[in-house]
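Two entries, shown back to back:
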Amino acid sequence: MKAVYLLAFLAGGALFGSMMGYYGKCSSGACPLTANPFRGAIWGAFIGALLGFSFMQGGSSAVAAESKNLVQINGEDEFNAKIASAKGVAVVDFYADWCPPCKALAPVFAKVADAYAGKASFYKVNVDNNQALSEKFIAEGIPCVVLFKDGKEASRVVGLAGDEKYKKEIDKLLK
């Protein structure tokens, strides 16, 4: 199915580029899209391929739970009940659906959640849907993973990091 989308973007880009080359000729011939229909088709196909790849990477707007060990938090009351008043280690991923680094972190976070099942609790908070929480914990740069020990913030990792970084931070809190 993805190949069909990619081919459609390629063909659409090539068609658009060749039309630009035919109808929008520039006088010097130096314009990449409008010098001639052939050059326009090549550049249009290239741009169409880039758009196609980005479209295929986007996927659904909702971040799916990749692990049964991840719990989605919806609202400050739920956050307080599950994290602020809890004992032990809780790891919270502040993310947004539109954020490419957040999407890249999702499988890493799920892998870490599976590795520490039973030792720590893992949660996800969508900053767009929970602005009060993101402001309270100053989650301005996302992804922002905040680690809690007995309901109090103990550490945080801002930006995309590998699973070893998260494991190291969790291991510190489990000691």
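entry 2 starts here
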Amino acid sequence: MPTVDLNADLGEGMGDDLALLSLVSSANVACGFHAGDLATARCTVEGAVRGGVSVGAHPSYRDREHFGRRPLDPSPTQLATDVSEQLAFLAAIASDTGGRVAYVKPHGALYNRIVADEEQASAVVRAIAAHSPGLPVLGLPGSAFLRFAAEAGLRPVGEAFADRAYRPDGTLVPRSEPGAVIHDPDAVVTQAVALARAGAQSLCVHGDTPGAVLLARRVRDALVAAGFTIAPFAP
């Protein structure tokens, strides 16, 4: 049977993380720079370890005020330092709970910026490679981030979004534009199955979306009904 990963952004203090952990196979855990804190991250990682869910670091720009969704311009050195700090933060928590950081997925504006910004993409990749050579990274197919990751010996994994609208070039519609987030559950489910059939290795359902738990359950059920096995890409 074909396999697909189902991931969600967790540890942000905005949704029912424990319920989502029973549905997803990978958890992108906030590292404190855009949301979350030590207690929240620990609770989320502990829940993931108990449930056999893969733990991923979800680093961001240093931007709690705007939830990491505002583009920033740190120097490459500062950005690499910020990413390194976040990876170390989550790695320590994972180690304390008997788990490990199995992959990295940048968050929000940083995720979108490193699709095309080669300077920032390179800085993020350098930080990840220095922290853990060969670590899988989750990003948009065709992005500079995944290209540099492959060149650095990291494992690039293409991600698709069940609940986000796409432009014709395959990039995401910015959240500042109408229709960027898909709220119709039927449309989300239809898109998720289509993306999986098109070869997406991992599908994201956002944990801060209203009704996220019900939506994730519907997506998971639809994928299973379509013949997919739900399993982490980085166990």
